[in-house]
């Protein structure tokens, strides 16, 4: 293919290099030193200080191909992705920049030459249209008289809402900062030859594609109403690589260009979709590209900040995969296809291909079940609605109980032309915030309030789903006969597959359901001999004696199980390495980590930790069977089962066997084989009280991720040290020697400087009532050196009052010293207190030496010192009389 995306990028950069521009690499997607931006969203971001002239510029002409992401704030393209032919979350912005060099005429001439010259992009001049800001006469005349574009193809764009500079052709980065008028170049896709300005404005989005924006940065926006001219004028241009590629490859959609076509074909093979113009295929192909670059930047899915954006993109992508019938994990399978295509220009992506695949796979697995449930509930609500509107209450319940993202709900409803009552959604959200503390306290103490004299049979060791009947329902601490949609409460059953929080293991989550009714179980706890399912009704009604299904969240349970089995292995490994002096004092087993507290009187060192890890991982590799058996308490003791025998046990107990390596009394749930744990890694060990140690560990993919992060840290350190990872220790040792040498040299020079300063100062000694007074002011002097000077002067002068002041802009440090023979008359601390009374400072110390600091009006310093001298004189005089 001629004019591949990579060729277009290189042509652009080569053209401007020939015009005297320096090619600089793309900056990171994470903006450096700019808290106003979540991600780099334009080519000019890395040059923001250049435009404001706050940073010294090495180059006056620069060209780049900048990686960008737009998913929030002013520049948010997420909702448009897939529904238009031009929008992307991740894209590349080709740009050329001039800083106090060329301006409007040259910038326009360069753009025209690159686009229309046969040597370069060779676009038909008659297909190009121009827009300019209405008041920018200079730009208009350049297009008309220099470039010779016909007047009917130069469109003046005015202000919106009669607000000055509120125009599509007046560019500004944000509410404040560099800005200026801009001129845009459009490509006309339509074969119709004759247009006028009205045609252009009416058909701009349909027949015309904006391919280049040239911004003339000549102002700095101080506020919404105030602009001031910049001393130095600059040029900032931006041409979307994907857009110009669609023009040069003669296709009407960015998704038809080379970098997307192979990917879309590959995605379609996982589904039954034959129409490659399918919106979901476009969205997935766009989003997978964003995910690859975000994970490369060491961003991982989370519930906040940049990690949330990544999670949001992955979940939106998963929803569209589900929509076109792809219900098996596949993101990690298509990622290598795109990485292979991109690595022609982005070789660095290959380095993290494994990590990218792993994170995508984990996130997809974790969200798949949530997505399926959420979609069922949402579709039920959509089918029920008669006014084409979904309540905010439903949206909030999906979000609050399933973690079903609100933007996914909005996306689905938009497709089905269903309105969403967002106002009521926000009201529900605020209501939940206010009640959250109350709710937490309520559930925390609920099992102390409810007293049910009944049993519940736990059948969850072997079954994930069972049928059961409702025996009791509690809402707001009261026993009720039914619970309806939107209500929080606790449901008690005759039997269940849900494991209640017990023995350090957290409770199961999942759902209770029958017909169209759904109760989301958010936690499971013991209440005497029975089990309470704590949660919320999402849809329908539940009544006493209803027969329903209990269904646990299998992924949540699986992760708990492998962590619980790993805890047993850890316990035995500790006893093997440290001896039987180890006694369990507590544990916590969750779906994300495990924690084990135990008694041990000595210090745990790193070699102990590594031996423990090795033993546990050896047992994992053996893939031993894990089985449970009920037996008498006496029989369990004979088998040397580990137990907290100070606890009360029934006559029949449950014993968990991991071959002969671990035998423990345990009522919790476990995985079937040790190999399922995958990997065990201790991430923290500490002493929590006298003789009590704590170990925290992770397993499986979380352990792998932890090791990858460690590996990345070592790699980054080795890069900083300019050495191989294997040579880090040797390199650091050499640096330590060098630093010590330099420190000694600096100390020698500083000591020499101190002696010189002392020699100078002694000449300025004043005599007051037989006592020597020495006051000296320094500027930006080393604090430790001042302490050394004070000590030396006290030795040399024998009897003296010394005041040293160090100025640093409007701040000061003061150190005072008084020799022992004078402290009965005046102390260093008294001098400090007196001094800071005249400043905005603080201080303290002892009789012989004291110090302080704060803000100081330097103009008043001499006045303050005169007051201090007079006060010292009065003190000495009073003491001598």
Structure description:
With 881 residues, the chain is α+β, with helices and mostly antiparallel strands. It folds into 5 domains: 5-256, Bira Bifunctional Protein, Domain 2 (BirA Bifunctional Protein, domain 2, 2-Layer Sandwich); 258-384; 450-552, Elongation Factor Tu (Ef-tu), domain 3; 559-708, Threonyl-trna Synthetase, Chain A, domain 2 (Threonyl-tRNA Synthetase, Chain A, domain 2); 746-880, Diaminopimelate Epimerase, Chain A, domain 1, CATH 3.10.310.40. Helix content is 40%, strand content 27%. It is built from 22 helices and 37 strands. The strands form 9 sheets. Strands 1, 2, 5, 6, 7, 8, 9, 10 and 11 form a 9-stranded mixed beta sheet that branches. The chain has a 6-stranded antiparallel beta barrel with strand order 15-18-22-21-20-24. It has a 6-stranded mixed beta sheet with strand order 32-33-34-35-37-36, sandwiched between helices. Helix 15 (554-578) crosses helix 16 (606-621). Residues 436-446 have low confidence and may be disordered.
From the helix content, strand content and strand pairing, which structural class follows? alpha+beta
Distance between the termini: 103 Å
Strand content: 25-35%
Q: Which value, in Å, is the CA radius of gyration?
A: 36 Å
CATH superfamily of the largest domain: Bira Bifunctional Protein, Domain 2
Tally of discrete structural domains: 5
Q: Could you name the CATH class of the largest domain?
A: Alpha Beta
Number of helices: 22
Main beta sheet: 9 strands, mixed
The unreliable regions are 436-446
What fold name stands as the CATH topology of the largest domain? BirA Bifunctional Protein, domain 2
Q: What's the architecture of the largest domain in CATH terms?
A: 2-Layer Sandwich
Q: Return the average pLDDT rounded to an integer.
A: 86
Number of strands: 37
Percent of residues in helices comes to 25-40%
Q: Which descriptor suits the 3D outline?
A: globular
């Amino acid at each position: 293919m001629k004019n591949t995306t990579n060729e277009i990028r290189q042509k652009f950069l080569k053209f401007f290099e020939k015009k005297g521009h320096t090619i600089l690499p793309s900056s990171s997607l994470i903006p450096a030193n700019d808290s106003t931006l979540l991600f780099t969203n334009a080519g000019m971001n890395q040059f923001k200080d250049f435009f404001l002239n706050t940073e010294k510029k090495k180059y006056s002409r620069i060209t780049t191909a900048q990686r960008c992401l737009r998913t929030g704030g002013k520049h948010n393209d997420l909702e448009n992705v897939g529904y238009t032919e031009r929008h992307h979350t991740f894209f590349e912005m080709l740009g050329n920049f001039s800083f106090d060099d060329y301006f409007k005429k040259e910038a326009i001439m360069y753009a025209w030459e690159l686009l229309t010259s046969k040597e370069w992009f060779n676009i038909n001049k008659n297909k190009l249209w121009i827009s300019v800001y209405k008041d920018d006469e200079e730009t208009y005349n350049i297009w008309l008289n220099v470039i010779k574009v016909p007047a009917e193809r130069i469109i003046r764009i005015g202000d919106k809402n009669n607000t000055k500079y509120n125009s599509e052709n007046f560019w500004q980065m944000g509410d404040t900062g560099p800005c200026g008028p801009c001129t845009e170049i459009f490509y006309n896709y339509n074969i119709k030859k004759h247009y006028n300005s009205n045609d252009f404005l009416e058909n701009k989005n349909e027949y015309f594609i904006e391919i280049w924006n040239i911004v003339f940065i000549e102002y700095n926006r101080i506020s919404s109403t105030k602009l001031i001219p910049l001393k130095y004028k600059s040029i900032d241009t931006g041409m979307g690589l994907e857009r110009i590629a669609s023009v040069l490859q003669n296709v009407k959609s960015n998704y038809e260009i080379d970098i997307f076509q192979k990917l879309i074909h590959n995605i379609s093979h996982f589904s039954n979709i034959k129409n490659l113009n399918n919106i979901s295929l476009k969205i997935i192909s766009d989003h997978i590209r964003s995910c690859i670059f975000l994970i490369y930047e060491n961003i991982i899915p989370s519930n906040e900040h940049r990690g949330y954006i990544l999670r949001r993109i992955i979940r939106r992508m998963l929803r569209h995969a589900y929509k076109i019938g792809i219900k098996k994990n596949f993101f990690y399978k298509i990622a290598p296809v795109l990485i292979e295509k991109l690595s022609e220009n982005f070789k660095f992506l290959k380095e993290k291909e494994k990590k990218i695949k792993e994170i995508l796979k984990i996130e997809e697995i974790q969200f798949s079940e949530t997505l399926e449930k959420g979609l069922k509930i949402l579709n039920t609500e959509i089918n029920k609605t008669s006014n084409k509107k979904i309540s905010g209450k439903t949206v909030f319940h999906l979000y609050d109980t399933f973690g079903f993202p609100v933007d996914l709900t909005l996306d689905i409803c938009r497709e089905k032309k269903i309105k969403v009552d967002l106002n009521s959604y926000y009201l529900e959200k605020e209501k939940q915030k206010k009640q959250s503390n109350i709710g937490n306290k309520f559930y925390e103490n609920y099992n102390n309030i409810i007293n049910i004299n009944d049993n519940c049979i736990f059948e969850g060791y072997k079954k994930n789903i069972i049928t059961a009947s409702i025996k009791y329902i509690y809402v707001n601490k009261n026993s009720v006969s039914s619970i309806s949609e939107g209500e929080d409460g606790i449901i008690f059953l005759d039997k269940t597959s849900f494991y209640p929080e017990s023995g350090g293991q957290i409770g199961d989550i999942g759902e209770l359901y029958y017909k169209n009714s759904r109760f989301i179980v958010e936690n499971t706890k013991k209440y005497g001999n029975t089990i309470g399912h704590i949660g919320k009704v999402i849809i329908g009604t539940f009544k006493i004696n209803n027969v329903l299904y209990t269904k646990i969240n299998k992924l949540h349970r699986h992760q708990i199980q492998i962590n619980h089995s790993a805890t047993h292995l850890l316990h035995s490994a500790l006893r093997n390495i440290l001896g039987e002096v180890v006694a369990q004092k507590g544990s916590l087993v969750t779906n994300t980590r495990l924690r084990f507290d135990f008694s041990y009187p000595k210090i745990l060192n790193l070699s102990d930790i590594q031996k423990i890890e090795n033993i546990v991982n050896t047992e994992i590799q053996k893939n031993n069977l894990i089985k449970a058996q009920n037996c008498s308490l006496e029989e369990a003791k004979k088998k040397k089962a580990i137990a907290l025998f100070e606890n009360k046990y029934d006559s029949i107990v449950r014993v968990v066997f991991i071959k002969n390596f671990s035998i423990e009394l345990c009522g919790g749930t476990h995985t079937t084989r040790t190999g399922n744990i995958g990997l065990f890694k201790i991430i923290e060990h500490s002493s929590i009280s006298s003789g009590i140690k704590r170990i925290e560990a992770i397993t499986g993919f979380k352990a792998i991720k932890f090791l990858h992060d460690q590996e990345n840290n070592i790699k980054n350190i080795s890069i900083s040290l300019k050495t191989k990872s294997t040579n880090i220790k040797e390199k650091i040792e050499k640096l330590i020697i060098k630093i010590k040498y330099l420190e000694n040299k600096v100390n020698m020079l500083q000591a020499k400087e101190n002696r010189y300063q002392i020699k100078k100062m002694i000449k300025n000694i004043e005599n007051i009532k037989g006592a020597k007074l020495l006051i000296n002011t320094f500027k930006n002097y080393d604090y430790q050196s001042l302490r050394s000077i004070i000590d030396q002067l006290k030795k040399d002068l024998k009897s003296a009052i010394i005041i040293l002041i160090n100025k640093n802009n409007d701040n000061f440090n003061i150190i005072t010293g008084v020799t022992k023979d004078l402290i009965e008359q005046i102390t260093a601390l008294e001098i400090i207190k007196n001094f800071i009374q005249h400043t905005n400072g603080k201080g303290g110390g002892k009789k012989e030496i004291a110090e302080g600091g704060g803000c100081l009006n330097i103009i008043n310093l001499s006045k303050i010192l005169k007051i201090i001298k007079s006060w010292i004189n009065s003190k000495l005089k009073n003491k001598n009389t």
